[in-house]
Amino acid sequence: MNRFITTLKNIFEIEELRTRILNTLLFITVFRLGTAIVLPGVDPKRLNLNPQGLLGLLDTFLGGAFSKASIFALGIMPYISASIAIQLLTLALPYFQKMQKEGESGRKKLNQITRILTIFVTAVQAMTYIRTTIPADALLIDRGLFTISSLFILTAGTIFCMWLGEKITDKGIGNGISMIIMIGIVSRFPGAIAGEAMSRGSAQLLIFVLEIVALYFVVMGAVVLTQAVRRIPIQYAKQVIGNKVVGGQRQYLPLKLNAAGVMPIIFAQALMFIPTYVASLFAEKSDFAAGVQNAFQTYTTWQYNLLFGLLIIIFTFFYTAISVNPNQIADDMKRSGGFIPGVKPGFATSEYIGLVLDRITLPGAVMLAIVAILPAIANLLGMTTGFAQFFGGTSLLIMVGVVLDTLQQIESYLLMRRYEGLMKSGRIQGRTETVAA
């Protein structure tokens, strides 16, 4: 406990870090206040929205803003959709590939294109949200006037959330976009715990304690899945530059066990409505189609989770293949004079990296699929739906990833402060292990 208090004291002694943390808290407060403001013309008392499936996942990311018909009802999600689209275009089209390789100027152009695309995506999603989600009996004004005004308000709300995310990244701590999503998820955690505790009551207090312990181990497992890497040793040849001999160092190429992150779960979740939709077209004429529709209407059936897990494994391999390029890694190593001991540079190195990547991707994909279906298992064991959602899935992985990234940035500030003191005293303690980029 004393060490924890000392760490907090050290954090707030660093002026820049203290300012960034306070800025982050300010921006997060503004975002949470915005999620509580209902769209003009809507009676919140008549709203009875209970989104399920992908819409329920979206409502979780937005901290309930979607179901409240808030001005931030779409939140940052249109920007995420636009970013994924631009990322896929970067992998598929030479024009975007060339732009990505232009350095800082290319990155600014891609960001500008992403912002423009976000406006169009938000407009389409806002129109769909207004027409299909807001019930007519909850409106206090004319439907046409409400549609026009809400279209502009929802679009402006998403742009404002995007601006908040960028400000958190620039002036605060951590990745702003991820931070906003995490705050939306965490905001529902106290209510979920309270709901689970009330459902158990005093008679089942021991069961509630065991659930909290199980949640702790699930979180630790998610941390392992997020942080686990396979390090490939890289040796750099010695070179004579002038009168100095440089190089000859051994570094490591870290390949993550889960290089795809949460994207496979998001992609798989987006496709899980297809079996229900297709089966509903033939449900009246076919008993088999009616059975399929019933099986995929809820996320707790074994059919749903089997297909969900298989899609996650497939998308994990797919996303890893497009995000990690062994050929490019091998070429970069060859140009910088690096090689893997016992492996020839060039094509052989690319094959070796690809083989290692395939071997670690399979267990990573299986573990990711298990984490994704844990909420369904928790719900079947009697936990409330809100509390079960924190036992795995996208919500847990996003929270773990954002927290770890934020802690790493805070730690870097503390290390820089420590290094300055060591350099002034002229002493060097410990050794920093180098990692190949």
UniProtKB/TrEMBL annotation:
Q: Topology relative to the membrane, per the entry? A: Multi-pass membrane protein
The compartments listed are:
Cell membrane; Membrane
Keyword vocabulary terms for this entry: Cell membrane, Membrane, Protein transport, Translocation, Transmembrane, Transmembrane helix, Transport
Instruction: Please name the GO terms of the biological process aspect recorded for this protein, alphabetically.
Output: intracellular protein transmembrane transport; protein targeting; protein transport by the Sec complex
Q: InterPro entries from the entry?
A: SecY (IPR026593), SecY/SEC61-alpha (IPR002208), SecY_CS (IPR030659), SecY_dom_sf (IPR023201)
GO CC, one annotated term? plasma membrane
- Principal cellular location given in the protein's record: membrane
Segments spanning the bilayer are 21-42, 71-96, 116-134, 146-165, 172-193, 205-225, 259-282, 302-324, 360-381, 387-407
Q: Which family does it belong to?
A: Belongs to the SecY/SEC61-alpha family.
The record, for HAMAP family, names: SecY
Complex and partners? Component of the Sec protein translocase complex. Heterotrimer consisting of SecY, SecE and SecG subunits. The heterotrimers can form oligomers, although 1 heterotrimer is thought to be able to translocate proteins. Interacts with the ribosome. Interacts with SecDF, and other proteins may be involved. Interacts with SecA.
Known role: The central subunit of the protein translocation channel SecYEG. Consists of two halves formed by TMs 1-5 and 6-10. These two domains form a lateral gate at the front which open onto the bilayer between TMs 2 and 7, and are clamped together by SecE at the back. The channel is closed by both a pore ring composed of hydrophobic SecY resides and a short helix (helix 2A) on the extracellular side of the membrane which forms a plug. The plug probably moves laterally to allow the channel to open. The ring and the pore may move independently.
Record protein name field = Protein translocase subunit SecY
Originating species: Arsenicibacter rosenii
